[in-house]
Amino acid sequence: MNANRINYINIVLIILSCIIAFFIPFELFLFSYGILGPMHYLTEIGWLHKKNYFTKGKYDFVFLTVICAVLFYLTIIKPSKDSDFVADLILLAFILSIIFVFIKDWLYRIALGVLAIIVIGAVNNVHDYFIWIGIFLPTIIHVFIFTWLFMLYGVLKEKSFSGFLSIAVLIICAASFFIIQPSGLNYTVTPYVKSSYQLFDLLNFHLINVFHLDNLSQVNDIFITNSGFVIMRFIAFAYTYHYLNWFSKTSIIKWHDVPKKTLIITIVVWLISAGLYIYDYSMGLMALFFLSFLHVFLEFPLNIVSFNGIGKELSALTKSPK
Fold first, then answer.
1. Which terminal residue of the chain has fewer beta carbons within 10 Å of its beta carbon, N or C?
2. How far apart are CA 75 and CA 83, in angstroms?
3. Do 21 and 28 touch, CB atoms closer than 8 A?
4. Per residue in 113-146, pLDDT tens?
């Protein structure tokens, strides 16, 4: 399957995700996160492992995995009273990923790692630090901003019209949720959906404040206000397309090109994960918490490589031919 065909398929997937998100945003998010999400985690981690996680060290992924395990322990196993640790660990994983991508010498790595800890200790008192790092970075920034940048990197390398068109359609669809706001809600969130979505409600609440859409008095207002539905449509769209974008590029990325035994194990684990979400959504969230954050952490180096690649491609475009 050539790149142009994949780009046009992605355009269709973007528009389809946008339309469904407009009418049933909460339900679409819960389906995508619970059914598409686990398969994405499993297949991407396997693919990243084959690529050595895009870092210069063979065992760099171990450090990111340990940080994720600490996060899981202090969040699920023995919850800490201090929520700032979540943002601190996420930022540490991100900064270490930068170091792992560009630096190979262990002496420099250690020195920069210590400096990273000092920097984190200095910035964790900054206003809205927890919101941007602890809530936005592993969620909406990961699934929308990083996905868009990853697409942009590919488009700049391909320099194809269909690629640039897919980028434009993604932006237009995302903007449409804020531009098209029906006066009547015509949508009721069921008690099941409310209870299943409670672990994500702060994301909606703070995004509403960031975009200055409303001045909500309590978090539960996201389920009954127009601003709550506007943001939920955007979130559902971002997550759904994030997963579909990964699966649409199977023929290029070849994440499925693994030993038969690995593929069978992946499918079995995915079926168990999806079953947990279907049986009890909250149970599924707890059981898959580690895996969901692990795939975010292990993808950080790839994000860094994409940022660097975009910079190189843009720099090359600005240079005059000799």
1. C
2. 9
3. yes
4. 999 999 999 998 888 899 999 999 999 999 999 9
Task: Collapse the DSSP code of 306 into the 3-class scheme (helix H, G, I; strand E, B; otherwise coil) and give the result.
Answer: helix
> 288: which residues sit within 8 A by CB, 6+ positions away?
37, 38, 41, 273, 276, 277
Q: What is the pLDDT of residues 277-300, one digit of tens each?
A: 999 999 999 999 999 999 999 999
Tell me the two tokens of residue 104.
């190979």
C-beta separation of 103 from 313 below 8 A: no
Q: What CA–CA distances, in Å, run from 66 to 61, 62, 137?
A: 9, 6, 19
Report if pTM > 0.90. yes
Task: Say whether 212 sits in a helix, a strand or coil.
Answer: coil
Cα 26 to Cα 223: distance, rounded to the nearest angstrom: 9
Task: Check residue 125 and report its DSSP letter.
Answer: T
Q: Tokens at residue 38, please?
A: 């686990």
- Give the amino acid at 132: W
Q: Which two tokens stand for residue 322?
A: 């000799």
Task: Give me the residue spans of the domains in the chain.
Answer: 3-306
Let me know: does 178 contact 234? Beta carbons within 8 Å: yes
C-alpha 61/C-alpha 41 separation (Å) is 15
